[in-house]
Structures are given as structure tokens and as C-alpha cells.
């Protein structure tokens, strides 16, 4: 999936560069990535946007709008779903991160974010869509904890439980055994 | 022939001491220990395997009781096997200790040989009983917990937690009980 996205970005970049050479306007490429290895219910999910201007003139009135994450399924922890930049210089890039918290588990279709910008002073406003990562499985917290949480405290308590079940009988047995051990008895 | 069949009181006591049947006190100790060790996996299945205790209360109760029965059965078998061996091993040391104690006190120094032997036998039985009981609990608990961990975190880890719990505890306790029936289990 990531390879495909990278290829797509590279292809669009190449296309953008070629067209940029022939016209004096801005061309924006937008990538949208999830930085988490696992998307888990109730745990922070970081989404990162990067906007590259591969054109030969600055892009003005740049606006990024994210409409994929509705408030019923995702809580915004940090960042904004709509953000504006006055201009992005040619060859420059800007990035934006938002942190969300998935409120329930399941499969969600995470589509592209929309970016609008003005390629040149007298041009019409352009719309460009970011890369999208499609259907994403939000793991439920129980499954995640079962598979990935270290449970250090839980294992520690389990270790304590083995004291009365294993070590205490052993200690009692050993104290009696060492007292009446045949090899020691001969030395008496 | 009928004379041979009739057992003396001492012989009956001896049979009771070295027989397979355990006393009520010992039996209670075994059941309490077995119940406790059978309940230990509940912690792991609740906290690590994320099973809901309220939803699984029936499953937990039934399997804990089954495990308790299997483990206490194993305790009794291992204790029975060990007690004879331990009694033989400690005989010399116990005889020396009891003789030493009896000879050190003037009121017990002049006891008859038979009385001394009775005291040695009583002491030997107590020590062997204690050692066999504690070792049986230690051995079976360790084996049960080890097998349960192997089953639940390696063999059956890909199964649903409920199935994993039943498989792990049933297999571990069943195997412990099965091993205890072997005559060379602790040799």
C-alpha cells in the first residue's frame, strides 16, 4: 500500500515537474500519511499532511480541508481539520499534523483530504486531493492489549502469586529435607 | 488363616499412615492448595488475555473446579508414591535423632526397645508425611503452571481467549493428573 502511494506521489511529482516547466504556475502535491503502526480504538492516531509546491510560481490562498474524520467516530485531540496558508513558495513544502482518537473499532474508509489553491494571480482556484489510504482497520483496544501490551504489572502480580503456590511449599519441603538428608545425617 | 486376616491396632495405624487414603486434614490442605493454584490462571486470562470476568464467570467457575479436582488427585498420588521412598531415606537420620533425644533425658532413657521403636516410627511417619505433602504440592503446582503457560501463550495463543482458557487449563491439569498415575513420576 505504501509502495503504491510512493509510486503515485513520484508519478504525480514527475508529471507536475514536466507541466511546471511549460507554464508559469504553482502545482501542489499533497500527501497524507498515518504515522502510527497500529490504529487502535481509544489511542492517539497521528495523521500527517505534506504539501509540496512543484510549480514555478507561488501558490496562494492555500486551504486544506479534511472531511474524512467525522466527530461520531473520531475525537480531535490536537490540531485542526481545516487549515490555511497564505502562500507556498515554488520548491517549498509545508506540513500539518493532527492527532485524533478513534472512538470505536472497525473498518473505516479514510479517503483523501482536499486542498484548494490559486496557482497564479489571475488564475482560477484549483482543487487537488491528497493521497488516501482507503479502508483502514481500527483495532479494538482489547485485541491490541492482548497482542501488543507488555503487561509488566500483571506479570509481576502473577509472579507474586507463585510465591504461596510454588516457593512456599518448596521452602517447607527444603527445610525438612535438609534436616533429615541422608548424606548430612551420616556426618552427625 | 482367619488369624492372619485380623489386623492389630498398630497394623491398622500403620496402614492408615502409609496407605493411599489421606486424612481429612491432609485432604482439606490439598483441596485448598489445588483450588488456589487453579484460580491463578484466572488472573492471566483476565488481565493479559483480556477476558471479561463477568461474562465468563460460569466458564471460570466450572474450569476452576475441574482443575481443583484433577490437581488434588495428582497431589494424593504423588504424595503416596513419595512417602514410602522418603520414609526409607530418612529412617537412619530419624532413628539417630530420636535415640539422641530419648537418651538425653533421664525420664525417657529407660524406655523399652518397643516404645523407642514406636516413637521412631511415629516421628518417621510425620516427617515423611510432611516432606511428601509439601513436595507433592510444589511439584504439581509447578508442573501445572508451567504447562498452562506453555499452552496459553504458545500452543493455543491464536485461539479465542475462552477456547484458549478451556484448552490450557484442561490440558495442564489433565496432564498433571495423568503424570501422577505413572509409577515413575517422581523417581
From TrEMBL, chain A:
State the GO CC annotations. Answer: endoplasmic reticulum membrane
Quaternary structure, from the entry? Heterotetramer of TRAP-alpha, TRAP-beta, TRAP-delta and TRAP-gamma.
Q: Which Pfam families match?
A: TRAP_beta
Say if the entry is tagged with keyword Signal: yes
* Family affiliation: Belongs to the TRAP-beta family.
Q: Which UniProt keywords apply?
A: Endoplasmic reticulum, Glycoprotein, Membrane, Signal, Transmembrane, Transmembrane helix
Q: What is this protein called?
A: Translocon-associated protein subunit beta
Subcellular location per the Swiss-Prot or TrEMBL entry: Endoplasmic reticulum membrane
Instruction: Give yes or no: UniProt keyword Transmembrane.
Output: yes
Q: Which organism is it from?
A: Paramuricea clavata
What is its biological role?
TRAP proteins are part of a complex whose function is to bind calcium to the ER membrane and thereby regulate the retention of ER resident proteins.
Topological type in the membrane:
Single-pass type I membrane protein
Automatic annotation (TrEMBL), chain B:
InterPro entries reported for this sequence: SSR3 (IPR009779)
Q: Does the keyword Transferase apply?
A: no
Pfam families recorded for this chain?
TRAP-gamma (PF07074)
| Keywords of the record | Endoplasmic reticulum, Membrane, Transmembrane, Transmembrane helix
As for membrane topology, the entry says:
Multi-pass membrane protein
- Does the keyword field hold Transmembrane helix? yes
* Protein's GO biological process: SRP-dependent cotranslational protein targeting to membrane
Task: Please state the protein's primary subcellular location.
Answer: endoplasmic reticulum
The terms describing its cellular component in GO are:
endoplasmic reticulum membrane
Annotated compartments: Endoplasmic reticulum membrane
Q: What does this gene product do?
A: TRAP proteins are part of a complex whose function is to bind calcium to the ER membrane and thereby regulate the retention of ER resident proteins.
What family is reported?
A: Belongs to the TRAP-gamma family.
Annotated protein name in UniProt: Translocon-associated protein subunit gamma
Amino acid at each position: 500500500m505504501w509502495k503504491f502511494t510512493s509510486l503515485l506521489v513520484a508519478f504525480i511529482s514527475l508529471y507536475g515537474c514536466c507541466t511546471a516547466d511549460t507554464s508559469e504556475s504553482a502545482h501542489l502535491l499533497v500527501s497524507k500519511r498515518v504515522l502510527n503502526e497500529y490504529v487502535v480504538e481509544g489511542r492517539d492516531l497521528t495523521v500527517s499532511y505534506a504539501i509540496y509546491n512543484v510549480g514555478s510560481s507561488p501558490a496562494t490562498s492555500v486551504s486544506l480541508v479534511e472531511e474524512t474524520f467525522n466527530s461520531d467516530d473520531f475525537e480531535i485531540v490536537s490540531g485542526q481539520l481545516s487549515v490555511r496558508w497564505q502562500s507556498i513558495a515554488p520548491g517549498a513544502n509545508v506540513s500539518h499534523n493532527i492527532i485524533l482518537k478513534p472512538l470505536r473499532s472497525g473498518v473505516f474508509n479514510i479517503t483523501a483530504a482536499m486542498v484548494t489553491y490559486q496557482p497564479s494571480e489571475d488564475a482560477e482556484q484549483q482543487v487537488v486531493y491528497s493521497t488516501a489510504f482507503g479502508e483502514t482497520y481500527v483495532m479494538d483496544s482489547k485485541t491490541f492489549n492482548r497482542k501488543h501490551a507488555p503487561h509488566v504489572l500483571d506479570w509481576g502480580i502473577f509472579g507474586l502469586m507463585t510465591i504461596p503456590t510454588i516457593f512456599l511449599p518448596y521452602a517447607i519441603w527444603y527445610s525438612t529435607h535438609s534436616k533429615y538428608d541422608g548424606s548430612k545425617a551420616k556426618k552427625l | 488363616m482367619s488369624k492372619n486376616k485380623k489386623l492389630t491396632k498398630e497394623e491398622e495405624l500403620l496402614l492408615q499412615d502409609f496407605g493411599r487414603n489421606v486424612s481429612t486434614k491432609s485432604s482439606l490442605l490439598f483441596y485448598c492448595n489445588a483450588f488456589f493454584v487453579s484460580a491463578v490462571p484466572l488472573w492471566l486470562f483476565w488481565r493479559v488475555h483480556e477476558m471479561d470476568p463477568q461474562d465468563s464467570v460460569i466458564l471460570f467457575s466450572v474450569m476452576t473446579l475441574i482443575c481443583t479436582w484433577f490437581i488434588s488427585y495428582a497431589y494424593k498420588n504423588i504424595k503416596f508414591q513419595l512417602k514410602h521412598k522418603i520414609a526409607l531415606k530418612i529412617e537412619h537420620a530419624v532413628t539417630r535423632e530420636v535415640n539422641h533425644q530419648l537418651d538425653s533425658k533421664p525420664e525417657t532413657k529407660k524406655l523399652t526397645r518397643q516404645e523407642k521403636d514406636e516413637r521412631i516410627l511415629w516421628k518417621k511417619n510425620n516427617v515423611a508425611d510432611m516432606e511428601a505433602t509439601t513436595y507433592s504440592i510444589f511439584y504439581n503446582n509447578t508442573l501445572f503452571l508451567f504447562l498452562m503457560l506453555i499452552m496459553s501463550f504458545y500452543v493455543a495463543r491464536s485461539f479465542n481467549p475462552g477456547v484458549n482458557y478451556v484448552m490450557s487449563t484442561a490440558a495442564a491439569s489433565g496432564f498433571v493428573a495423568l503424570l501422577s498415575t505413572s509409577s515413575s513420576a517422581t523417581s
